[in-house]
Recover the amino acids of this structure.
């Protein structure tokens, strides 16, 4: 068991999960955030103009700003994918793909959609050792290195720009042959060590204690090759993954987690927020509010576990803190 028993484990690092972490940590709870990336789909938004109090902000910038607030209040982060959930006696256990199991008094499910994996040999084993799904989280660790970005579109291009800013040589691995459409990337690619490799798929990620190379296949010629890199950033988009909580909490016909107005699921002690829930409106500000509600509900649940139930009159004071 890693990290002892937490007060709450929040699964997901987009605006709902980050807002839940902020409110929970600010109440003095011991908080762990388990997520593959920071920002989730929010990071794809080039500009958000309907977040109250902010005229315009890039989604990635908003997510990073909230993350910095969260860290100031002492919350911990583990960059991994949650794949299992179980209930012990008075605690819950989250099992991850790579880093082990974590235990908490409460769980907040706020994972929205999860970054897609390549599902190739070596990927799982080298997560955190050169394989990343979050350029904003890990780019500083690869300063001046050779890295591959696997994917296409705005999210992949943002990862390339960020990695390039750290002086990296960046390979863009893409199974199609569409031309680069990002003008800034085109303009700077030749002088900033950005190399486009179309019609290519990753067959294997190789390495011992860290990534050493990737094995590639050209899908037009069937020719295989090996490319030496220090890191692999997987930017293949997102997918909804609620199968691992099916049967543990109640889902609707769309696979979304059913919650009440306080963010409670069908299982006491487990809460949910954001796009993973059955809330009809999928907006950043709504997800943030749901995250805050779920965190306050988790705090109240923990107080009851400790024999200190809150009266209704106490809720206003709690919210104002």
């Amino acid at each position: 068991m890693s990290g002892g028993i937490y007060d709450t484990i929040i699964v997901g690092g987009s605006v709902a999960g980050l807002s839940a972490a902020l409110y929970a940590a600010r109440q003095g709870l011991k908080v762990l955030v388990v997520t593959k990336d920071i920002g989730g789909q929010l990071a794809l938004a080039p500009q958000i103009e309907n977040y109250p109090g902010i005229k315009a902000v890039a989604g990635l910038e908003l997510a990073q700003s909230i993350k910095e607030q969260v860290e100031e209040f002492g919350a911990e982060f583990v960059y991994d994918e949650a794949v299992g959930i179980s209930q012990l006696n008075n605690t819950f256990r989250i099992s991850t793909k790579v880093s082990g199991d974590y235990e908490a008094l409460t769980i907040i499910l706020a994972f929205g959609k999860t970054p897609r994996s390549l599902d190739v040999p070596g990927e799982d084993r080298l997560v955190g050792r050169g394989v990343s799904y979050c350029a904003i989280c890990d780019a500083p660790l690869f300063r001046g290195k050779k890295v591959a970005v696997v994917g296409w579109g705005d999210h992949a291009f943002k990862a390339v720009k960020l990695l390039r800013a750290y002086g990296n040589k960046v390979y863009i691995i893409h199974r199609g042959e569409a031309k680069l459409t990002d003008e800034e990337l085109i303009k700077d690619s030749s002088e900033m060590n950005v190399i486009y490799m179309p019609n290519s798929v990753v067959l294997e990620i190789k390495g011992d204690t860290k990534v050493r190379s990737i094995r590639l296949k050209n899908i037009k010629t069937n020719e295989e090759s090996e490319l030496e890199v220090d890191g692999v950033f997987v930017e293949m988009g997102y997918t909804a993954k609620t199968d691992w909580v099916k049967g543990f909490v109640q889902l609707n016909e769309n696979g979304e987690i059913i919650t009440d107005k306080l963010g409670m699921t069908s299982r006491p002690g487990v809460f949910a927020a954001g796009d993973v829930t059955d809330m009809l409106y999928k907006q950043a500000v709504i997800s943030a509010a749901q995250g805050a509600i779920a965190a306050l509900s988790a705090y109240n649940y923990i107080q009851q576990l400790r024999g200190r139930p809150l009266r209704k009159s106490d809720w206003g004071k709690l919210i104002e803190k």
